[in-house]
Design a protein that fits this description.
2 strands, single chain, two-stranded antiparallel ribbon, disordered C terminus, 74% helix, globular, mainly alpha, 7 helices
Length: 254
């Protein structure tokens, strides 16, 4: 069975319609459990005190902001190479979600940074990369809105998205590239080094990250389904307009 069959709009609508209720309920339950656990039942940090609890919103939102951009880039590349319109529409559907989470990551980072670093903002390599990535998100959304032809818009926005991948990489790996020049610490959760934080904070954080992923997939399916319906409605309008008879021919005309 080929995975590309899910690029068929009818198959995508069928599968996503079946998955949506499960995703919606799972995301609601997971986020509720993670928030209650993290905000209500974890201890204060010995250095940061109660401000450490913002980790349960900041870390998942920052993680998803970067990962959503990578998802958009992969979907855009597939759309350009394979000419699957569903891929373009998934990238388009993901963009406002990614932009919102990027903004949330910047805001929560500023709130966390003020008591930790003594400043709301610093032109740190990682912070600057995330800010530029937000501008690419907004530019991508604006370009879709500015171009009337959906096929042309899909191609141009995909090129723009792929251009901005460098800043998504910098957002992810700035600590490794710049070392001591960045205020951020190395990742607390890594595959190679394991867990660099106390399990009292780690488990609720894992639950919150899972909740953010489920929440994203729920929203992106809802938005992608709406985009497909709009594309169908536009095709029907164009077909109806093309089928309408022209002005009646004058008498005597052959």
């Amino acid at each position: 069975m080929s995975i590309w069959r899910y690029a068929n709009p009818a198959e995508f609508m069928r599968l996503s319609g079946a998955a949506l209720p499960w995703l919606a309920w799972s995301s609601a339950i997971t986020l509720t459990v993670g928030l209650v656990w993290g905000l209500g039942f974890t201890p204060a940090d010995y250095q940061q005190g109660e401000t450490v609890r913002i980790i349960y919103v900041h870390v998942p939102s920052a993680m998803m902001a970067i990962n959503i951009y990578f998802i958009m880039a992969v979907a855009s590349a597939i759309g350009l190479v394979r000419r699957h319109h569903v891929s373009f529409l998934v990238a388009k559907a993901a963009a406002p979600i990614g932009a919102g989470l990027t903004l949330l990551a910047l805001i929560t980072g500023a709130i966390w940074g003020q008591p930790t670093w003594g400043t709301w903002w610093a032109w740190d390599p990682k912070l600057t990369s995330v800010l530029i990535m937000l501008f690419f998100y907004l530019g991508y959304i604006g370009l879709w809105e500015a171009i009337e032809d959906p096929d042309k818009a899909a191609d141009l926005t995909s090129v723009l998205c792929l251009t901005g991948v460098v800043f998504a990489f910098m957002s992810r790996y700035a600590v490794l590239v710049f070392g001591n020049q960045t205020l951020h610490q190395p990742a607390s959760l890594t595959v190679g080094r394991g867990v660099n934080m106390d399990v009292a904070f780690w488990w609720p954080l894992v639950v919150m990250m899972a909740g953010f992923y489920l929440f994203f997939f729920t929203l992106v399916l809802v938005r992608a389904r709406a985009e497909i319906r709009q594309r169908r409605a536009r095709a029907i309008r164009l077909a109806t307009a093309a089928a309408e008879p022209g002005d009646a021919a004058p008498e005597g005309a052959v």
